[in-house]
Amino acid sequence: MIFDPPFIPATLLCRYKRFLADVRFRDGVIVTAHCPNTGTMLGCTEPGSDAWVSVSDNAKRKYPHTLEIVRARTGLVGVNTARANRIIEQALKAGAIRQLTDYPELRREVAVPDEKGRFDFLLDGRGDGRCYVEVKSMTLALEDGRGAFPDAVSERASRHVRALARQVEAGHRGVLLFCVQHTGISYATLADEIDAAYGESVRGAVAAGVEVLAYGCDVAPTGIALCEELEVRLAKR
User: Fold this and answer.
1) Burial bucket for residue 64 (CB in 10 Å: 0-12, 13-18, 19+)
2) Which end of the chain is more exposed for a tag (fewer CB within 10 A), N or C?
3) pLDDT above 70 covers what percent of the chain?
4) Which one, of 94, 38, 35, lies nearest residue 63 by Cα?
5) Cβ-based neighbour number of residue 203 at 10 Å
6) Which of 140, 223, 213, 231 is nearest to 182 (CA)?
């Protein structure tokens, strides 16, 4: 995913009201930017951190600027979680996720069969059944390169995982895919200390046959791209 023009450098002053952040540009101008991240952004909101924002030409937007990247203590972080699905979509189309290649059909935001809610992607047409994919953006970096999800309690995330398990039980394939938008993360885990119920939901889904994958990202103001596969460690710490 190439950003043209590149994101604008700034300094993060604060994040507040969940979806807002104040940043100061190099010329001293301070603006309020939209912060498209439903989590706590734990470790990514230190005042004075380097940040990068995009700007929209949509005149109807109340806040034309969007907080995109923050420099955390251990690396650059793509904090716009809405970009995770686009990054994964591009990677799927390019065949960059080795476990999910050779599916000629790709659909976005597909309804969960016989349930409320939607999965991020449906892969089909390969001849061996459907594959439902749920994408989660991982940005929480802890000790020794450990990445963890989620960074806040999320019943919605647990519900998605349980829905994947039910599709596997129905004879389909289910994949939970962590898009790791933090250059300081070297392996992925579950944040049981934050949301124990989610950890149990994931482990139960794995026991039912759901696959869990994690891929890191190269994060830069000029673009974000999926890169190497990361180890996933699901055991409780």
Assistant:
1) middle
2) C
3) 100
4) 35
5) 18
6) 140
- The token pair at 74 is 């251990």
Cα(205)–Cα(179) distance, integer angstroms: 19
Residue ranges and CATH numbers for the domains of the chain are 8-78 (2.40.50.580), 82-232 (3.40.1350.60)
Strand partners for 182: 77
- Asked whether 136 and 157 are in contact (CB, 8 A), the reply is yes
Residue 193 and residue 145 in contact, taking contact as beta carbons nearer than 8 Å: no
Please tell me the distance from the alpha carbon of residue 146 to that of residue 202, in angstroms, as a whole number.
Answer: 18
237 near 199, Cβ under 8 Å? no
Strand 65-72 relative to strand 75-78, pairing: antiparallel
Helix axis angle, 196-207 relative to 155-169, nearest 10°? 10
Instruction: For residue range 38-89, list pLDDT tens digits in order.
Output: 899 999 999 999 999 999 988 899 999 999 999 999 999 999 999 999 999 9
